[in-house]
Amino acid sequence: PMQQQKRQPELVEGNLPVFVFPTELIFYADDQSTHKQVLTLYNPYEFALKFKVFCTTPNKYAVVDASGAVKPQCCVDIVIRHRDVRASYYGVIDKFRLQVSEQSQRKALGKKEIIATLLPSAKEQQQQKEEEEKLIKEHLAESVFFEQTLCQP
């Protein structure tokens, strides 16, 4: 019988998992410290990666080092700054695409989308979250109560 040749798996275009954290950026208009955020791109592979950052609305953001390389088993920080904070942009979802390729190859091996949103206030968000949590807790307490009363003989 023919010996099966062990081959290096082909790196298929577009299929390489891309590891980025976070995958969502939220900028708050009233909080200056959130206007600059960091995306971390991890390279868990045995080969170096090249990366490029694309954006649906490049005029709104400044990306420091929008392209570069990540050594094998290293990571790189990509700084994204919101540079056009205004009320008409509240709630608008922008997208960044992080595209990676192998250093020696031209083709894109993988990509990841990151969404970015500008919100008016972190405080408002916090209140909303607390409200939601309160409702969920009340709801849980109720359903637990019902289950308990049902189980009584």
From TrEMBL:
Alphabetical list of InterPro entries matching this protein: Ig-like_fold, MOSPD1/3, MSP_dom, PapD-like_sf
Residue span(s) of domain MSP: 17-146
Assigned keywords, A-Z: Endoplasmic reticulum, Golgi apparatus, Membrane, Transmembrane, Transmembrane helix
Keyword Plastid: no
GO cellular component entries: endoplasmic reticulum membrane; Golgi membrane
A family per Pfam: Motile_Sperm
Keyword Disulfide bond recorded: no
Membrane topology of the entry: Multi-pass membrane protein
Top-rank lineage group of the source organism: Eukaryota
Subcellular location as annotated: Endoplasmic reticulum membrane; Golgi apparatus membrane
Function: Plays a role in differentiation and/or proliferation of mesenchymal stem cells. Proposed to be involved in epithelial-to-mesenchymal transition (EMT). However, another study suggests that it is not required for EMT or stem cell self-renewal and acts during later stages of differentiation.
Protein name as it appears in the record: Motile sperm domain-containing protein 1
Organism, as annotated: Brachypodius melanocephalos
